[in-house]
Every structure is written in structure tokens, then in C-alpha cells.
Fold:
Amino acid sequence: MDMVRVGFIGCGGIANWHLQHFEKMDDAKVVAVCDLVEERANKASERMDARPYLRYEDMLEKEELDAVYVCVEPSAHNGMEFMIIEKGCHLFVQKPMTLDMDYAIRVKEELAAKGLLSCVGFQCRYMETWPRLKAWLNMQDVAFFTGYRIGGMPGVWWWRQKEHSGGQIIEQTIHNYDLCRLVFGEPVSVEGMGRSGIVQGVENYDVDDCSAVTMRFESGVIGTMFTGCFTGFGGENSYQAFCRDAKAEFGFGSFKVRERNMTIEAKAANDYGQEIDDTFMDAIRTGDGSDILSPYEDACKTLKMTLAAQASIDAGGKLIELDSWQG
Structure:
């Protein structure tokens, strides 16, 4: 395949973040873009010299595409993935892939049945520090960890409405939960509490202001993730892991590990956003998806983890065993 032909469904902020990566590629081209807002579709069309559409059904019917990026809000997944799969296109979906676990499972199964490649937008997995940190943690007796994703509220209208975004855990802190899986392994249970009343004067706002979710992992490690969208001061996006004879402090692209007689620090220098899109395009050209760090099948595990965490909060702190939870 000399040139990978790509279509985009959704031309908002995250789509434009991906489009800048395609501007640097010589062997992949965005040939068609679609958005319900005509101005956004036309702007992306002009930027990429691509054909604009207002309906993804028209784009998928008329265009010859090798891959499609789905970059819409969580509540807007209304069957587009199934049309993409039926057309035989490889699929990139921005996180979270949906708010409906059954929907995600159906997409996963149909991708497998068709033998198509997939990737979900967990680009933070591509920061080059993670393999080094994981290797160090694998040599330690990790007892527990704490994680934080504390900041302000994104400005898009749909984010502040739970029916559209799912809330901060599912829409935003899902990156942090995904990295918990990457570093500490698979979770077996979640138990969470949330609160509101801190955020004031925001119209049509009904998501949790903050939450604390405790997780237990197959390895025995326990951890608590704190998240909040209530502050413009003193934000935090980090983890601390406490071991028997050591401690690790890490974030998105950096870490500092301390043993009794040694301290190691590292910071990622790679463009992880470019890397996730380059990796997906390379996989399509070669037919080898082994370098994709976040295929749809794996991303379903992170989605389930966050949906269950929110369900626990909504149930007043109910302990949820992930193996038996159906969503």
C-alpha cells in the first residue's frame, strides 16, 4: 500500500490534534472529513485538501477509504463503527469509545470477525518512559499507590453533562486509569465515592465535582485514584507507588524512583501523539498490528474499569467485582 487513505468523523478539537500529525506524513492522506457542523467540516477540508461531508453515511458510501478515525463525543456513537467495519476499513476511535459496554463488546467482536486493525486514542501509552518504569516496578514489592487527576472543567458543552460525557472518570481520567492497567496489571474490583456542591453557577452541569476510587489488582496491589474538575489552582496529574524498600513518583512522561542508596530520574522526549498515529498507519501498511499499544480489544478493559467505577459511585460506594459485572 503506497498511500493510506483516511477519513475523519468529527472535526472538533481532538480531531484537529490528530490532523496535525497527518500533515507530517508522506504515506498517509486524509481524503475525506465529516462533521455535523458545516463550518468545522469545511475548515478541516481546506486544511487537509479533503472532501467535506455533513453525514458520515454519505462519506462512507462515496469514498474509498483504508481507515477511519472516529472523533465524536462519547454519547454520539450511534452505529458509525459498524458501518466502518462493514466497509472493511481499519478503525481508530478516540476514548472513551462509548458509554455503553454492550456496544463496545459488539464493536470488538465485529472487528475480530473481519480481521481489521484497530486503535483507541490512549496516546499516553506511547510515552517512552513507561517500559523503563514498568521494568523497575516489576523488581519491587509494590504495596499500594495513589493517583491524582485534579484540575478545571473542559470548556465544551457536552463535557459537563453526564448523559453525554459519562463524567470526568470516564471521559478524562480514563487516561489515568488506563495507565494504572499498563503499570500495575489488571484490576479485579473497584469501589468509589463521589461528591458535588463545590462547582457553582455552571449551567446544565451534573457530573461529579470529585471522586475517589479504590482498586484491587490481580497482583494484590491496591490503589486509589482521586479526580476532580473543580479547581483552577493547585492542579495535579501524578502517581506515587509505595514499595517495601523503595518509592516511585511518576506522571505523564516522567518518573523518579528512590531506593535506599540510589535515585533514578527520567523524562520522555518523544512526540507520543505523533507516534500513536504513525504506529497505526504503519500497521495498516504492513498488516502487522503488534506495535499498536491500545487496540480496541484491550481498550475495552479500561472502558469497563471506568464504567464500573462510575457505577459504584452512583450506587453509593458499592464494591464491584469486574469479572462478574456486565455494565
